[in-house]
Amino acid sequence: MTNLIKKRGLIIAIIVTLFTLLILLNVYFSNSVTVKISQLNVRSGPGVNYSLKGTVKRGTHLQVTAKKNNWLKVVANHKQTGWVASWLVDKTTIGHHSKLAETTIVLDPGHGGDDTGALSNTQKYEKKYTLQIAKRVAQQLRSQGARVILTRSTDKTTSLVSRPALAEKVHADAFISFHLDSSDVANSASGVTSYYYHDGASKRLATNINNQLRSLPLPNRGVQFGDFLVIRNNTVPAVLLETGYINSNSNFKRIKSIKYQNQIAQDVVTGLNNYF
User: 102: exposed, middle or buried (C-beta count within 10 Å: 0-12, 13-18, 19+)?
Assistant: First the structure.
């Protein structure tokens, strides 16, 4: 009888041990990720502005210990600790690896829905083209691995106050609002303008982007102070870009062309790369 009790006790102990081991393994693997891109940066804190501690290569298993602002605190190779951008863990390829891959960028297509924006001489609304341009910028940014969020992705009404609020909510590294200018008299003005409200980072961001927009086939009206709510009420580096005059026939011919929109997108991406 004593031996039988001992055997039963041993069996129960083994079962409990195995069950505990399965739970621990499940916890371990459910809180682990595998690097799929060729190289992933590990930083000292949850953001692109924190110092670089090192890198991990494709295939490395990372144990997740905390999450903050869409960044993951991880342990690599049972010794290296730091933070990685969560959206990069699931990616398999990035067209061109750059610092932009670790950034969160909010793009704001001006107007939308009931708010049509300015009108062209051919009765076309500004809201249509700001969305087209923002989507082209988003496509190029995502090809570099950036986390991109649009304040609107369709023709819907979006309040002004919600736009900078979104940038703050997602802990954006930059906010860019796209607009098209309009003059009091049709065909009396032409050009591209980059606006900032806050000195410092916002002004530097506007300058870096505007330097690239000089390649556009329209006059560059430079970097200017602008008292616009979406950049005034923003707590992240924010700029507003007027990428042409919609009621100028020559400007509008450019604005509605895919080639011009793609050129704007490339210039904005290059400007962001230079800024970061």
Answer: buried
